[in-house]
Design brief:
4-stranded mixed sheet; about 140 residues; alpha+beta; 60s Ribosomal Protein L30, Chain: A; two-stranded antiparallel ribbon
Length: about 140
């Protein structure tokens, strides 16, 4: 059975903007990826103190994981975004959205934003971490 994704935004729920309420995946293989932070391949934090720059590095890391498994970012069906400052994330929403579209285009998986008290790599300067999963063909 080939992979098929169906996006569900029921009219009984508020309009989904920048995400999808539910994604149904049929067929394919599931790839679960660990929380990715704004570290490059050498373990250096990219964009210290800059949430938008860190978001870009995290997206690059997500693309690397998904493509290594033979997929692409449009195969992602769920993302959970953890940030140290949810208000700052919202303030930077337009810039973050621009970076998001550079990587994902108009593909909007199910997403959750979580304001976190701490992140494992926060002491290194990481402001954001994203995990999730993809359904690969």
């Amino acid at each position: 059975m080939p992979r098929e994704l169906q996006f569900h935004n029921p009219p009984a729920l508020m309009k989904a903007v920048g995400y999808t309420h539910g994604v149904e995946a049929r067929g394919g293989r599931l790839l679960f990826f660990a929380g990715q932070v704004a570290k490059d391949r050498d373990g250096r934090v990219v964009g210290k103190g800059d949430l938008v720059a860190q978001f870009g590095q995290v997206c690059e890391n997500l693309r690397t994981v998904v493509t290594a498994a033979g997929g692409q970012l449009t195969d992602v069906v769920k993302l959970t975004i953890y940030v140290l400052d949810a208000d700052e994330y919202k303030r930077q929403g337009k810039a973050i959205g621009g970076v998001y579209r550079e990587y994902f285009g108009r593909h909007f998986p199910a997403m959750t934003l979580v304001g976190a008290r701490d992140l494992y790599d926060a002491a290194d300067g990481c402001l954001i971490e994203i995990d999730g999963f993809a359904c690969l063909a």
